Amino acid sequence: MRAMELVVAMALFVVGAVVVYDSYRLGSKWGSDGPQSGYFPFYIGLLICLASVVNFAQAFLARASAAEAFVCWGPFKLVLTVLIPALFYVLAVNYAGIYVASAIYIAIFMAWLGKYSWLKSVTVAVAVNVSLFLMFEIWFKVPLFKGELDPLSFLGY
Description:
The protein is mostly helical and 157 residues long. The chain has helices spanning 2-26, 39-61, 73-112, 118-139; strands at 30-31, 34-35. It has four helices and two strands.
């Protein structure tokens, strides 16, 4: 367990350092017209680095306890029930786009893990994604990725 805490703290520090570096490169100061584009991410990256140093120090200075397993099969199985469908979702976004893939993902999760009826699951999934479509595509005029197959091309967006 201790080894994994040290590894995760180091990995998160690297992520925070990359955010800090790139935010500084973009401009992390206060400009004449307000904050530059890297201002907010710069400080978030610093917080990530600081938290990682604290976590690393706590794990490093902690007294060694009895050999404690990093993960047991039961909790790991629960993680996999979310992780594996999420990987399929990421692949589906590439082909079907964010709206269609998200609707399918929400419906399957509601029916499978939430034990809701398929009718309720599909209704909620479609309602959520229609709302997101209206918000991003119509109101904000921010097009989201439609996928290589572009199944919503009949809408004209």
